[in-house]
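Lecture 7, part B: from sequences to assemblies.

Below are the input chains for today's worked example.
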Amino acid sequence: MEAQAIFETLKGKFGDAVVELQGEGFSPAFVVVAPGAVKEVSRFLKEDPALSFDALMCLSGVDYKEKFAVAYHLHSLKHRHAIGMKAFLPRETPSLPTVDDVWPAANFQEREAFDLFGIVFEGSKDLRRILLPEDWEGHPLRKDYKYPDFYHGIKV
Amino acid sequence: MTIRTDALPTQEMTINMGPQHPSTHGVLRVILTTDGEVVTRAVPDVGYLHRGLEKIGERVTYAQYMPFTDRLDYLAAMNCNCAWAWTVEKLAKIEVPERAEFLRVIVCELNRISSHLIAFGSYTADMGAFTPFLYAIRERERVNDLFEMLCGSRLTYNYARVGGVSADAPPGFLEKSKEFLDYFEPKLDEYNNLISYNKIFVHRLANVAVIPAEEAVAYGLTGPNLRGSGVPFDLRKDEPYSVYPKFDFKVCVGTGERGTLGDCFDRYMVRINEMRESAKIVRQALAQIPDGPVLAKVPRLFKPPVGEAYFRSECPRGETGIYLISDGSVNPFRLKIRTGSFVTMNIFEKVTRGLMIADVVAVIGSFDIILPEIDR
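Predicted structure of the full complex, as structure tokens:
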């Protein structure tokens, strides 16, 4: 299925929760979804027989300076098509529902986005820092991250 | 082996496996909770090798990032080099000369052979047979010699460039590559005779850590780990990129030949068979390689159009997907690297539940993880 058709299917099903299609300049195209609806849309994308996006290939946090985003790259082994899904989040309270019960593959990648961006995935079964030490301060991939001078009294 | 619910409970013990342990293939720490010899929970703790490669990417230009991709997976640096080049070319819509694409495929497949050799060799060493490791290293040396001829390095190659490759093959390289294949292909039968079907080895691997196909897909496994579960998905075939459509090769999948489909033995065997297919691809590429330039005219500093691209390529440890966002400046705005090993570690806790401690070693080896790729 082409990106436009997937977008229209989702728009028909979820209405205003599906915001827009980012097509030009994006490869693959992104369906922009309201953060609150991420879980329902994900479940539909996975379970609808015409879509059946059975694999979450990549989940990334992005800092667009004025807002955050979580980008999902989905792929269907059955239909061999791909689509992106994106949810924009406010900088002050970046949180959205987890999708680790839809695609178990999400867990580690959500932990990574939590670790490096401070994005909170509500309802996650295990949301801890993954790459950085537990007591690290700040989230390094944010654009306004200040490099620390010391870590445990050691100059970095 | 399962957790026996009827047995008398013993006091649980927590053991640290790693981060400095030869069988964890680097600085992986596994926190084992055991009931006697049986593992009730094995939690992987990663991140010891985190170098912030994604953050570094935001501060250097597209061309300058190439050497950093070597450090992503040092056993398959050519594949990572090319993955980066292909991603940037997709984003900036750069045409690559055909000879360069052929050279990339040749080095990628040779590197896949050398990477799978390490997987094979270290796995047998983990399982207690040290000799095959020396055989694997012996063959890998010859691949390293070839790469040294090509770009001067034996581990971190920095060979690909945005728009092509850094240098054409020197005189004799293509002939030497063919000589290597003639030497190497019979060795695979030797490995199979020596160890693959050895009774003790098979017993250590068969029916251990079985991953059914639908679970492998749901957990996002890719590469040999996915194909070991019997799913015939290979990006070189199913989402062809570069010049792969020109070559005839088979997608190797697990068959459950010595145990259950999707066990450690299947994942091991997929790698052995894939080396043969890679050799086949290199042979065809060597026969068909055209003459011509190897590097398109790309300025050292260039500004790709504003946009986002995600490129997936088949690396020895699964799909390496690079998500690249450009804001129209000379540096990437954001780059995210999705690596096979990192996603594979997600299923680790699930498949190791109820195994013996020694089997945890078998699982780590069968996933063929590499830590710089997990920690980035």
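Note for the exam: Chain B has a mean pLDDT of 89. Keep this in mind when comparing with the next example.
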